[in-house]
Amino acid sequence: MIETRDLTKRYGNLIAANRINLKLDEGDVFGFIGPNGSGKTTTMRMLATLLTPDFGEAYVDGHSIYTHPREIRRIVGFMPDFFGVYDDMKVIEYLEFFAAAYRIDGPARRKVCEDKLELVDMTFKRDAMVNQLSRGQTQRIGLARVLLHEPKVLLLDEPLKRLGELKKTVMVSSHILPELADVCNKVGMIEKGIMVANARVDEVMQQVRQAIVLHVRVGGEADTAAKLVEQHSDVAKVEVRTGGLLVVTLQKGVLDYSFLPTLLVGAGHKLTLFREEELNLETAFMELTRGLYQ
């Protein structure tokens, strides 16, 4: 659905996007992560045919950004982080104005607008003035606007909830990393115009995880259980924390930890907690961008 090949954009000596390579399939929700100024918006504007690259190629639904920009604009909904709204217009009037621009005419126009308002939970504001909405409400109206023509692809410069429910290919950018962890199936991390990661979320986590860490709590004496566990050859270290929590770090490369509950239960310990510690996207980003500032 979206493919880029060495997509590059320069501003003088600054390389805003440096040979970006992406491939998103239909239905993917792709989180584009990086700090402000890292190249996210530049990349999205090139995909939306609003900015011409200096080098490289990009395709949206098989259409080249160079030769078929009109076709791409028909199937893309692009919502930047900040966008203006017209004064002295009600929400429903605002949407109908853009629906008319998309050549949605007659009774269908009002129905489409009402349907999109309901989708973004803004029906209760249909007769409110657009310039009196809160920032969050304005974002939702903006999303309703870009959905009017039923685009196949959404390029969003701001995370929004319920992205997976839209059943579209979505690229959403953010510098607030935890916002994307639960809504995306793929993630790309960009810094200084360079893609430092581009994979499924679980693959990125695996890439930065040096060893599996487990959280274990037993019903008996925690120190005794810790001494038992740390003697196993597949265990690198065991830390006893407040409340009797054992933090068990396995040796690098050890993926099977089924031995651990067997070992503890066999020694008479009752397990009350046993889970793998989760990495978050922020930790992953810091690990993957380490060295770019040196």
**What would CATH call the homologous superfamily of the largest domain?**
P-loop containing nucleotide triphosphate hydrolases
Number of DSSP helical runs = 10
The whole-number mean of residue pLDDT values reads 88
Distance between the termini: 36 Å
User: What is the N-to-C succession of helices and strands?
Assistant: EEEHEEHEHHHEEHEEHEHEEHEH
* CATH architecture assignment name of the largest domain: 3-Layer(aba) Sandwich
Number of domains: 2
Computed CA radius of gyration, to the nearest angstrom? 24 Å
Overall morphology: elongated
Helix content: 25-40%
Instruction: Please state roughly what percent of the residues sit in beta strands, choosing from under 5%, 5-15%, 15-25%, 25-35%, 35-45% or over 45%.
Output: 25-35%
Count of DSSP strands:
14
Written overview of the protein:
- There is one protein chain.
- Helices cover 30% and strands 29% of the residues.
- The protein is an alpha/beta fold.
- The protein has two domains: 2-207, P-loop containing nucleotide triphosphate hydrolases (Rossmann fold), CATH 3.40.50.300; 210-278, Alpha-Beta Plaits (2-Layer Sandwich).
- Helix 3 crosses helix 4 (107-119) and helix 7 (201-208) packs across helix 10 (281-288).
- The two termini are 36 Å apart.
Outline:
By secondary structure, the protein is of the alpha/beta class.
Question: Which key terms come to mind for this protein?
Answer:
2 domains, alpha/beta, single chain, 14 strands, Rossmann fold, about 290 residues, Alpha-Beta Plaits
